[in-house]
Amino acid sequence: IKNGRVACENKEDYHAMSEIMWAGSLSHNGLTGLGAPMDFTTHRLGHSLSAKFDVAHGASLSTMWAHWANYVKHKDIERFARYARNVWGITEGTDEELADKGIEATVEFFKSINMPTCFSELGIGIQDEEGLRELTNRCFYVKGTKVGKLIPLTEEDIYPIYVSANK
Hints:
There is one protein chain. By secondary structure, this protein is mostly helical. It folds into two domains: 1-36; 38-165, Dehydroquinate synthase-like, alpha domain (Up-down Bundle). It contains nine helices and no strands. It has helices spanning 2-9, 14-28, 41-53, 57-72, 77-88, 95-112, 119-122, 129-138, 155-165. α4 (57-72) packs across α9. The longest helix has 18 residues, at 95-112. It starts with a helix and ends with a helix.
């Protein structure tokens, strides 16, 4: 978070840029999960956007993250509350309030570094139902399977996540 803001202000800041690259390397090597199941549903949602609209992967992730999080947070509200406390330092409220505040803080962070958080900000415009169904279908390499670990999501689950981002 700190280095993302610094890098946006000064793309020549070697320290900030190297810290971001280091964090990405750790994440891609599985260390960020620390033995817990990791959920890459947002990546699958983003891959569908990238495949259809040729948008950058990071932009597709920031576009979809909060919409996914709001859809699945009820499954493990404590996880999202812990995220709000540990990442954003938000401590006031019930676990549900903390979860919502943490998700909103993430959206605000994305916006502060000029990352999109919905389709119109991503530059792909509002999609019609056919377009949303196509994005949903692209999430599944094999029809009838599920995506995700926190909540294994079906096509019926993925579609409303895209609907939520479609503004």
